[in-house]
Write a structure and sequence with these properties.
136 residues, mainly beta, Methylamine Dehydrogenase, Chain H, four-stranded antiparallel β-sheet
Length: 136
Amino acid sequence: KTIKIWNLATGNLIRTLSGHSNDVSSVAISPDGQTLVSGSLDNTIKIWNLATGNLIRTLSGHSDSVDSVAISPDGQTLVSGSLDNTIKIWNLATGNLIRTLSGHSNYVYSVAISPDGQTLVSGGDDKTIKIWRVSR
């Protein structure tokens, strides 16, 4: 239910982020290193200020556990994959839902975004990997 931030050089614990009401399944850090995003079995996504540890906002929209989160290379878009069989694309700065992608017939376990930010790849329990072209 927590996220621990560690100093890689010393191995010292910097801080613990608390706020999820169930296990944390995935984390991602924005390209500028300022924001941490976490997905949880509590069906939410939390956006944190990495420097202060403060919670910026909570995104609710999935009807089941959020198993995977990814941030686009430009730091503007957040993608989440869920056990509700969907992928959601969010505006990271505002928290607004941009769109929901349906196509998996079972849980979505993993999401990734290409370096140019135009392609999204998802892996699911339906034994498929889907490649999505994301237009802005």
